[in-house]
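To close the chapter, one final illustration. This time we ask the reader to focus less on the individual chains and more on the assembly as a whole: which components sit near each other, and how the overall shape emerges from the parts.
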Amino acid sequence: MRRIAVVGGSLAGVHAAEALREHGFDGDVTLISAENELPYDRPPLSKEALLNGMPMERLSLRAPEWYEDNAVTTRLGNAAVRLDTARRTVLLDDGTTVAYDGLVIATGSRARRLSSTENAPPVQILRSIEDSLRLRERLRPGQHLVLIGAGFIGLEIAATARQLGLDVTIVEVGRVPLGRALGDEVGAWFRALHARNGVEIVCTCTVEAIERLGEGAVLTLSNGRVFNADVVVAGIGASPVTEWLDGSGVQTTDGVVCRSDLSTSVPGVAAAGDVARWYNPLFDEEIRVEHWTNAVEQGRRAAHTLLGHGEAFSAVPYFWTDQYDARMRFVGRASAASEVVVKESGDDRLVALYGRDDRIRGAVCVNAPRELVRYRTAIRDQVRWGDVTETPSAIGG
Amino acid sequence: MGMKLVLDLDACQGYANCLIESPGLFDLDDRTDKAVLLDETPAEDRRAEAEAAVRGCPARAISLESS
Ligand code: SF4
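The assembled structure is written out below.
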């Protein structure tokens, strides 16, 4: 194997390139990115970068010299549009091709847009650095921000906007915020957190119509309410970027279908990060995870697999979000849990556990980092549900 | 050749990822909400854990040097 192409200037892509070099691969490494900037970190885009602005040097995952020092060739501002697995080439949107012997698919995901926004004022999304800069310009004290969707990104933007002095309303289709991700109990806790900070979350409700009014908009909700907004942002989830793989033979079903070692249906092709769906033996489930740490570790694993050192990837997913003074950390899996137990709940602290098949599978900890460490170990060791819910001190706290 | 963990407290944002990756090497200070290095010069058999903590820190506040 002489040439490895990494498609996606993402966290997973950078770590794949880095791991290739760490493993002594001395052939060509080309990193292809649709974005114009060198790969950067996304979590701050809805928090610190939106609040205070953040220079590119701090957002960049690696300094420009790193690419030179590691002989990683970058093709920035070039989206991959087609993959030819017979010829082993990637076609880019400028008409050029990149030939490879090994390929890492790390194209990540893109924010979903509302379907019916023609003629409507631009409903913003937040995914890229440009999105974050554009939104930052619009967030002025005293203005009214309406967020569509009370998922993690929406809630983070809400918290940042409150700190910037805006009035904030969130419209959410579910019964509570984060309900699908974390269940009603934890969702209700987040709703109360935001209420304490002056954010109204209108639940079980959709936006029926958005009409332009000056720079802003008039929104009509399904419950009949009508109100004005200066800025409207949709945070309604993300979809894996896989269209460029159509017809390539790489199997996709809501993401690239991977084996447990992140190899794909095509030899010499592995995938990592948001775009990869793989079988996680620890949870006995096929999952796709859009988390920071997952992207780092999968990027590395995909690189190892390409170099012939494949091993099953069975990490415990880990995720964090910071809103106001609440530092929430989540380990494991909450979806498909059949039981939820709230162990502790107060205004500035929350510990909730998720179980299924008599095993602990997930834990939410707000401002409780040590509990997080403890439950992460319990999830990895597949501790019995009863042992963590009935006897709080039984697992080494 | 041993290794030395270095924690940049100005850069640390208290994400606690280091704690998750490597509970034996890091703790969190409840008062400052910043990481505490429990073992600056870990034994060689903890290298993988130390490297995972370095990679896992979103603030890039941890580095590993040889000593
Ligand atoms: S992961 Fe990094 S930022 Fe977070 S507590 Fe540890 S050192 Fe600090």
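Chain A has a mean pLDDT of 93. Chain A touches chain B through 19 residues (CB under 8 Å). With these observations in hand, you are ready for the problems at the end of the chapter.
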